[in-house]
């Protein structure tokens, strides 16, 4: 007889492992299934985020930023460096070690919270009395039963139809994180988060980087004023970004990759590069899940259809994260995982999708929460805006990083904060204050009247809030 569990979670990415831990904390008997393997074939829970996404990309961004500072900015501080070189293999090895620390941390958390971990691929077998039978296909095959099943199988990189990934010349996020040496010429298709972050890493290490973007606007989801400021910074750094292009044939050979495309004017162009990173979005991953065995409903994108509470069309089958609707963000998956575990336990889990922050970890960093100015205009909402530049912030000057600004958008009548947008140093950390403020429906005046430490970058947040009422103190 197969092992019986209250909750079986398929996938141990941010949504899955967090759901498993929270369900265990609430007294449920929990199993979590995940098939990721490390280089030695061992378990590597954490999903795309930990293994080939958020965590390794931040490790490479940190290493490459150190190199750029040593090469171009240390002299400003009186530090002279001679014979500077970059050992890419060591940088990649450090990245791999950071990933392993996170993998091991999740396995420890499973043990600590008494979650039973199965290393293999989870797939539906059939509905049975009191739940669902799930097969684990790994080094050994076994079947377990769960009263509730949470599907958290994540997403896969979307390939170009004319150029499937080979992870040698045409790279997904996975291959982009394993490049063995800085390419002389790097092409990137897609100017989203992955394209900009990976382009930034290899530009800092000496690559000539060209990013081709099909849309006519840069970072269309970002507040327009913030996107323009970011584009100015990237142009100055030497990232070549071409907008409104139409990509045609892509050919690979011994010398690398050749991309034919039409530019925004409709003129035929060709770009030759050593490597091509394709970052045109991601698709929900239900590979091998066998949803048809139980009648689990998918939409036209291949995502699992769920309601606002992450319930599927089947009783006691839930789904969270990238495999369902909504933004494909690790922290959104985590919040859904917690909420579903709490709903299973009879509590009232809640996720406010309007308050999910977004971050791009380039330099300058870009972060935002809430609505953009163009969205407020389109919705006919009367608003007030306030901005404050980092060039007027004492801490930013001391850091030597004064690019960008903080921008507040507040309701013209009530002064409630409707959106906060940041481009500049440590934007990823600064945005948290805005999330807290908006969760409590604060006004811009509330932030303007709170004491912020001096000198700190967070003073720019206070000053932008003051700017809504046209009363900045330092600009």
From TrEMBL:
Catalytic activity field: N(6)-[(R)-dihydrolipoyl]-L-lysyl-[protein] + NAD(+) = N(6)-[(R)-lipoyl]-L-lysyl-[protein] + NADH + H(+)
Catalytic EC class: oxidoreductase
Residues at the catalytic site: 454
Annotated cofactor note: Binds 1 FAD per subunit.
Pfam families documented for this protein: Pyr_redox_2 (PF07992), Pyr_redox_dim (PF02852)
Residues of the Pyridine nucleotide-disulphide oxidoreductase dimerisation domain: 356-465
Cellular component terms (Gene Ontology): cytoplasm
Cellular location(s): Cytoplasm
Molecular function terms, GO-annotated: dihydrolipoyl dehydrogenase (NADH) activity; flavin adenine dinucleotide binding
Cofactor (UniProt): FAD
GO biological process: 2-oxoglutarate metabolic process
Disulfide bonds: 49-54
EC number: 1.8.1.4
Superkingdom, natural source: Bacteria
Family: Belongs to the class-I pyridine nucleotide-disulfide oxidoreductase family.
PANTHER family documented for this protein: DIHYDROLIPOYL DEHYDROGENASE (PTHR22912:SF224), DISULFIDE OXIDOREDUCTASE (PTHR22912)
Matching NCBIfam families: lipoamide_DH
Protein name: Dihydrolipoyl dehydrogenase
Species whose genome carries this gene: Brachymonas denitrificans DSM 15123
Lineage of producing organism: Bacteria, Pseudomonadati, Pseudomonadota, Betaproteobacteria, Burkholderiales
